[in-house]
């Protein structure tokens, strides 16, 4: 049994994509980040960075006590190693997959996240910031589009955790001011993943958990965007 501490964000979707693909038994535990659940002591004991997702594996492979993992990329790699799925066993395939997983974690996710913030949530529309992150998001889309020109999936011809990490960040392409028609190889990849049964199940779970935007009032805005050193206790 996997306990998944989750909210309906791109990083949260990464893990439900994996769990639905593999059929691993899991318990979904909502962490409403718009209401401050991420600051509760019981969650911080698992995820000290007060961010979702996080998991607790109640039956780790070594047979020991339950093990907790935070950071979505680390969770994907852990689950792939646990199940022997979606991460190639050979050196070259594994390296391809892991480097693109890190590309998403260090590039696509943070830059698209800043794009979302300055386009949708910032109280002041700062033209320079919006232009900066829209352009960088487009550059990253271009990198991914080029990568997919001669292969079905990011790491080759097999679906891997690299795809699961990147796909949720492309779902919001209209809000990022990106047109998938400008990136035909990425668009083909995106549409193929969207049609996978596990993808549909994962996003159906999201709709069950949360049917409204996370940032929908001023209190949520303060919780999500007013954090600093003072919030780390």
From TrEMBL:
Residues 1-87 form the GST N-terminal domain. It comes from the Bacteria. SUPFAM superfamilies: GST C-terminal domain-like, Thioredoxin-like. InterPro entries: Glutathione-S-Trfase_C-like, Glutathione-S-Trfase_C_sf, Glutathione_S-Trfase, Glutathione_S-Trfase_N, GST_C, Thioredoxin-like_sf. Pfam families: GST_C, GST_N. Residues 90-223 form the GST C-terminal domain. PROSITE patterns: GST_CTER, GST_NTER. Signal peptide: none annotated. Belongs to the GST superfamily. This is Thiol:disulfide oxidoreductase.
């Amino acid at each position: 049994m996997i306990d998944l501490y989750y909210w309906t964000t791109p990083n949260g979707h990464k893990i439900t994509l994996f769990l639905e693909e593999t059929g691993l038994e899991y318990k979904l535990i909502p962490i409403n980040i718009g209401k401050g659940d991420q600051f509760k002591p019981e969650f911080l004991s698992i995820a000290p960075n007060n961010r979702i997702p996080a998991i607790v594996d109640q039956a780790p492979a070594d047979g020991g006590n339950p093990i907790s993992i935070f950071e979505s990329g680390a969770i994907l790699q852990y689950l792939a190693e646990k199940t022997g799925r979606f991460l190639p066993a050979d050196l070259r395939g594994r390296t391809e997959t892991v480097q693109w997983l890190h590309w998403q974690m260090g590039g696509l996710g943070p830059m698209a996240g800043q794009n979302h913030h300055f386009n949708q949530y910032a109280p002041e529309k700062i033209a320079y910031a919006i232009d900066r992150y829209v352009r960088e998001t487009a550059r990253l889309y271009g990198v991914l589009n080029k990568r997919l020109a001669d292969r079905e999936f990011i790491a080759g011809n097999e679906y891997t955790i690299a795809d699961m990490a990147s796909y949720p960040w492309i779902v919001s392409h209209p809000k990022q001011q990106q047109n998938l028609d400008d990136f035909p190889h990425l668009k083909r990849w995106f549409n193929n993943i969207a049609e996978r049964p596990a993808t549909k199940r994962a996003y159906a779970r999201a709709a069950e958990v949360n049917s409204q935007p996370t940032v929908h009032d001023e209190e949520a805005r303060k919780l999500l965007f007013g954090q600093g050193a003072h919030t780390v206790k």
